[in-house]
Amino acid sequence: MVEADDVSVLILAPHGRDGAVASAILGEVGIIATTCPNLEALVAGLDASACAVITEEALLSADRRELAEWLERQPPWSDLPFILLTHRGGEPVGHLTDLLGNVTVLERPFHPAVLVNAVRSAFRARQRQREVEAHLKERQQTHERQALLIRELHHRVKNTLATVQGLLGATARSTHSVDEFYHSFADRIVSLSNTHNLLTEDYWQTAPLIEMFRNELAHYDDGGARRITLDGPPVELSADLAVPIGMAVHELTTNAAKHGALSAPGGQISVAWKVRDLEAGRRLAIDWVERGGPPVEQPRRKGFGSTLLHRVLTHQCHATISIAYNREGLSCHMDIPLIEERLVPEY
After folding, report:
1. Which residues contact 161 (CB under 8 A, 6 or more apart)?
2. Do 43 and 66 contact (CB within 8 A), yes or no?
3. What is the SS3 assignment for 255-297?
4. How would you classify residue 204: left for phi > 0, otherwise alpha for psi between -120 and 50, otherwise beta?
């Protein structure tokens, strides 16, 4: 099918009955034809036409500069078909056919079927040109999207390498043996990898918050969903939030497994979250509460986990963090502004 705005044939035949005859012939087979009073009117309608039927004398008696400029301005995919009506027995004027370029010459008088076939061939040619236009647009959009994805990948890789470097230094400072360093650092890299897996499943756009908790906590449950409770609405985190929040969840889980609720058979962890719509934007509130573990005491020194929670989430995510070392169990409240993904738009 020809594009919706490419359904008309323009006819320029101001002398005699050629215009009326051609229009009537095309109308009988359902082809829309518009008769133009002069060359200026024809040029004005070329953008929305499938082809143009022009008599030789109409071009010879008109100022053709505006038509030449329009033809010169055609985009690379376009080569509008023209049908030039000449007198029988005469040679078409060479500079006119050169001007029109994609031209079919018909001698008058012609059989109606000849004109209809010429116009239909022009329609098919214009349809192919429009298909080329659509293909070029799609290729351009694909190229732009690929360039955007490459820039986003570069941004993500830099952030990830910076995160790994930070994990390396902080783990080295908070451990006391090579073996302890190895296991702590390996666990943190695995946690980072799990978050990355969630992101890459969605073309590095968002990661479900609940899946991040499940990745860390599911294997500590007792099978009856009594030790671990997760409660909150669906929340998709942008990559800039998912990585630091995933690290924070890992540190809370690791601490609970070593010293808190997950280190005792009857210990329980409850995680609840909600999203609030405020004038300043949407905010995510997360409450992590431990119960049933060993009695909690205020730590004598700040470990890597609490350092990450305060430093990374506060500085990188602009979050508000509060940790309470209640004797019955640690609790942590995080209030985080939700940010939308900056890159990779849909087409």
Report:
1. none
2. yes
3. HHHHCCHHHCCCCEEEEEEEEEEECCEEEEEEEEEEECCCCCC
4. left
- C-alpha 288/C-alpha 270 separation (Å) is 6
Q: Give exposure, 228-266, as e/b (b: 16+ Cβ within 10 Å).
A: bebebeebebbbbbbbbbbbbbbbbbbbbbebbbbeeee
Cα gap 96→73, rounded to integer Å: 18
Per the CB < 8 A criterion, the answer to whether 2 and 50 are in contact is yes
Tell me how far apart the 2 most distant CA atoms of the chain are, in Å: 110
pTM for the structure as a whole:
0.50
Q: Residue 92 burial (CB < 10 Å; 0-12/13-18/19+)?
A: middle
Interval 177-229: pLDDT, tens: 888 888 878 877 776 676 666 666 555 567 889 988 988 888 777 666 578 99
pLDDT of the residue at 71: 95
Residue 287, amino acid:
D
Helix 209-217 × helix 239-258 angle, to 10°: 30
| Residue whose tokens read 């010879």 | 60
Tokens of residue 26, six digits: 């095309």
Q: What is the dihedral of CA 141, 147, 149, 152, to 10 degrees?
A: -140
Contact 156, 204 (CB under 8 A): yes
How would you label 102-136 residue by residue, b for 16+ Cβ within 10 Å and e otherwise? bbbbbebeeeeeebeebbeebbebbeebbeeeeee
